[in-house]
């Protein structure tokens, strides 16, 4: 077989990645009964059991397409179509209950593994990797649900984030690195294997000189923002952001409590000033930047700053304390970092393997996030992966890094 995507292994070893990913999915929900799994914990999120059925249905669909064969459960396509069923309505769907969803997961993956063993030579490696990445992304989505519901997870230690140096002269996140102008190849390397359609095609962008935060903005800097009246001074907010703040009655990041603690899944902990602030919306990130007379980086500035050299994408396993040669720290795998860029296709964009993945979200409603989070897997936490969400969303593991012109 010996055809590979960008799994870091040949397609021969895809079974290992599929099995490891499935073990993680099942471990996330192992301690919960059907009542917890089938409940709607937030209108922003699906019931956890819907995620399980959706993972199975997605694998069923795309492995069937990879072999040009029938699905095991074509009758479930509409129920698990994420584009046709908004999260707020998924709790009302006739989704598979817990035991049925677990059976479906097992049946689908058993077929996938059997096909890889018996007929892998004719399977499209991109579609196999798509299935693996999709399930890993839903692992992070499920962790968002667990965080909102204050439920514990066996992967809670993965949420121990990079700690910035708070002995600097200013709160970490307010120290900047100057980066020279450069003509930068932006997007996934076409020789590197699988990439999402919105990471392609690679193209050169002229990036002017700029400054970018040496670290993500930390809790220490955010506490100072609150003390300066950050949630009370409308002049620091865009009109849309101030309307959101007023309607939401936001006064702190989503998981902070009035007694100076924050939720870490099912545990309340003291707010650590050295950790990157997390669970903030784009509106909050934008207001914070305005309060310091700076801005959020563009996604092209971000990608340049995250690179191991000015023209090559990051190709290492994410580590919390990694510093790029440009002197920028902790960009990969800590918090999703909001950028100022609205989500759209690169010049020459072509939808692949299906238009609903990216194209329907293009326009000025969604903002791009970069870098992956403490809840992301290494396949997702790369220098070129583009996440996106609405500017009011903060259930995601999102933070920020500042930038300014020179």
Structure description:
By secondary structure, the chain is α+β, with helices and mostly antiparallel strands. The chain contains ten helices and eleven strands. The relative contact order is 0.14. The model is unreliable at 1-9 and 309-321 (pLDDT under 50). The protein has helices at 14-29, 34-38, 48-67, 87-90, 98-119, 125-149, 219-227, 239-248, 282-291, 299-306, and strands spanning 176-179, 182-186, 203-207, 210-213, 261-264, 267-270, 336-342, 367-370, 387-389, 398-400, 403-405. It folds into two domains: 11-154, dinb family like domain (Four Helix Bundle (Hemerythrin (Met), subunit A)); 159-405, paralog of FGE (formylglycine-generating enzyme). The longest helix is centred in the middle third of the chain and has 25 residues, at 125-149. It has a four-stranded mixed β-sheet. A three-stranded antiparallel β-sheet has the order 1-4-11, with helices on one face. Strands 2-3 form a two-stranded antiparallel sheet. 32% of the residues lie in helices and 11% in strands.
Topology readout:
Blueprint: H1 14-29, H2 34-38, H3 48-67, H4 87-90, H5 98-119, H6 125-149, E1 176-179, E2 182-186, E3 203-207, E4 210-213, H7 219-227, H8 239-248, E5 261-264, E6 267-270, H9 282-291, H10 299-306, E7 336-342, E8 367-370, E9 387-389, E10 398-400, E11 403-405
Parallel strand pairs: 7-10
Antiparallel strand pairs: 1-4, 2-3, 4-11, 5-6, 7-8, 8-9
Helix pairs in contact: 1-5, 1-6, 3-5, 3-6, 8-9
């Amino acid at each position: 077989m010996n055809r590979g995507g960008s799994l870091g292994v040949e397609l021969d070893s895809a079974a290992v990645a599929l099995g490891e990913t499935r073990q993680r999915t099942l471990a996330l929900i192992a301690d919960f009964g059907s009542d917890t799994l089938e409940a709607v914990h937030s209108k922003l999120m699906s019931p956890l059991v819907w995620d399980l059925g959706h993972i199975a249905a997605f694998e069923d669909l795309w492995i069937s397409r990879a072999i040009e064969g029938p699905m095991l459960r074509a009758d479930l396509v509409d129920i698990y179509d994420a584009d046709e069923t908004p999260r707020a309505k998924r709790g009302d769907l006739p989704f598979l209950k817990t035991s049925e969803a677990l059976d479906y997961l097992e049946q689908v993956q058993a077929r996938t593994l059997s096909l890889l063993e018996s007929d892998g030579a004719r399977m499209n490696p991109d579609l196999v990797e798509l299935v693996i990445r999709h399930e890993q992304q839903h692992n992070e989505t499920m962790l968002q649900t667990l965080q909102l519901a204050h439920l514990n997870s066996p992967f809670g230690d993965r949420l121990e984030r990079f700690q910035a140096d708070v002995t600097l002269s200013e709160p970490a996140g307010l120290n900047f690195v100057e980066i020279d102008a450069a003509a930068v190849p932006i997007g996934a390397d076409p020789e590197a294997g699988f990439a999402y359609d919105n990471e392609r095609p690679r193209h050169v962008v002229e990036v002017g000189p700029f400054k970018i935060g040496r670290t993500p903005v930390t809790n220490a800097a955010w506490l100072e923002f609150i003390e300066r009246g950050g949630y009370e001074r409308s002049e620091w907010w865009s009109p849309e952001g101030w309307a959101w703040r007023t309607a939401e009655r936001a006064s702190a990041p989503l998981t902070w409590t009035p007694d100076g603690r924050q939720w870490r899944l099912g545990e309340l902990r003291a707010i650590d000033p050295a950790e990157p602030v997390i669970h903030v919306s784009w509106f909050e990130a934008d207001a914070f930047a305005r309060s310091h007379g700076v801005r959020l980086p563009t996604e092209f500035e971000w990608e340049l700053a995250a690179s191991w050299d000015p023209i090559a994408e990051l190709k290492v396993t994410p580590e919390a304390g990694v510093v790029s040669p440009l002197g920028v720290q902790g960009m990969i795998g800590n918090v999703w970092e909001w950028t100022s860029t609205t989500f759209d296709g690169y010049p020459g964009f072509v939808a692949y393997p299906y238009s609903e993945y990216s194209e329907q979200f293009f326009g000025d409603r969604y903002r791009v996030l970069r870098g992956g989070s403490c809840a992301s897997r290494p396949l997702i936490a790369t220098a070129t992966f583009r996440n996106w969400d609405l500017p009011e969303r903060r259930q995601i593991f999102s933070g920020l890094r500042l930038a300014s012109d020179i």
